[in-house]
Amino acid sequence: MSESLSSLRPSAAAGVVGTTLREHVLNGMHAAKGATGEFTSLLNHISLAIRIINSRVRAAGLADLLGYTGETNVQGESVQKLDAFTNDVLMNVLERSGHCGVIASEENDEALLADHHGKYVVLFDPLDGSSNIDTNVGIGTIFAVLRRQEPKLSRPSLADALRPGREIVAAGYVLYGPSTIFVMSTGQGAHGFTLDPSIGEFFLSNPDIKVPERGSCYSINEGNFSRWSPSIQNWARWVKGIHPVGESPDDRAPFTTPYGARYVGSLVADAHRTLMKGGIFAYPADSKSKTGKLRLLYEANPMAFLFEQAGGAATDGKDRILDLMPTELHQRVPLVLGSKDDVAAYRQFVVGERK
Ligand code: AHM
Ligand code: MG
């Protein structure tokens, strides 16, 4: 085999730009000892659901133009809203896959417990940032996959879902932006795939994403400033280059210049920018959202897994997100994601090492 052909062999293809998502997943299976193909099949089902969702998200503006987003359409039939539709697609596709013992969604009060011994637990936010749909701003889907601890010995139960994020075996998000990008990890780095809409196939576009160690942007809903604790307020001043009394600009090294502000209000969009360019995203607790706004199982854990896989960090301000032990399905948590140095600097304010 010639040099150029051998470099395209499937075994070498996992990190090659242009590899399809299907090939990438299959290569992972071939590399894993004792793989049964169930995990691969599960990931392929998730990819199918995402492509179905993408086609509907892409038509959302058109549907709006034609008046199809209300409760009823021109024929008087009821029309589902986009968040309900995306939820149904994921629920149905995952249930039909036969691989899931437990499926839980941000949209449903209760988890679905299968009456078979499906090995996996899938937790998802089907349409993150849904309040942005009407203004044509990027929205997304976020998911995490865990393996049930004793799939053969026990029936699926809620306890299978209430596991710390460090046990995640795969996680990902899809950003329905100018293009549709799917960033995922099975524990061997974070990789980005871009959808070619003309053929409905995801191609590897960003292999082995690495978050820069420090960025130059901060991303937070600063309208909540008056609701934050003094330590977060101090951090927000500091990140803008306002020096605390007694601190000279030299004491800020290596954070010498004020950070730029970027905030979309869709976690997927804000997290994706932070993952690619570095910096920090934070949604802290405040006097209104006392334990934070974002959900541990559907938003914080999958994002934390991806950021760590890309060499970044994720905390609740103090502790590592992936070590938090969930107590309930819809638990909320303060979330701080980003470049290692930027997250560490934020933590210094929270724990009182910096004022
Ligand atoms: P949701 O659309 O799944 O309810 O997600 C919550 C959204 C996140 O996408 C985003 O980070 C955050 O809420 C924005 O909140 P706020 O409008 O308070 O800044
Ligand atoms: Mg969300």
What top-tier CATH class of the largest domain fits best? Alpha Beta
In the predicted model, the low-confidence regions spanning at least 5 consecutive residues are 1-14
Provide the spatial order of strands within the biggest beta sheet. 2-1-3-4-5-6-7-8
Shape: globular
C-alpha-based Rg, rounded: 21 Å
- CATH fold call of the largest domain: Fructose-1,6-Bisphosphatase, Chain A, domain 1
- The residue fraction in helices comes out at 25-40%
Structural commentary:
It is a single chain. This protein is an alpha+beta fold and 355 residues long. The chain has helices spanning 3-6, 21-31, 38-58, 60-65, 82-97, 230-239, 267-277, 296-309, 340-350; strands spanning 100-105, 112-113, 120-128, 139-147, 168-176, 180-185, 191-196, 201-206, 217-219, 260-261, 280-283, 294-295, 313-315, 332-333, 335-338. It has an eight-stranded mixed sheet with strand order 2-1-3-4-5-6-7-8, with helices on both faces. The protein has a five-stranded mixed sheet with strand order 10-9-11-15-13, with helices on both faces. It has a two-stranded antiparallel sheet with strand order 12-14. Strand 9, helix 6 (230-239) and strand 10 (260-261) form a beta-alpha-beta unit. Helix 2 (21-31) runs antiparallel to helix 3 (38-58), helix 3 (38-58) packs antiparallel against helix 5 and helix 6 crosses helix 9 (340-350). Residues 125, 128, 267, 299 line the site of magnesium ion. The site of magnesium ion has 4 residues, from strand 3.
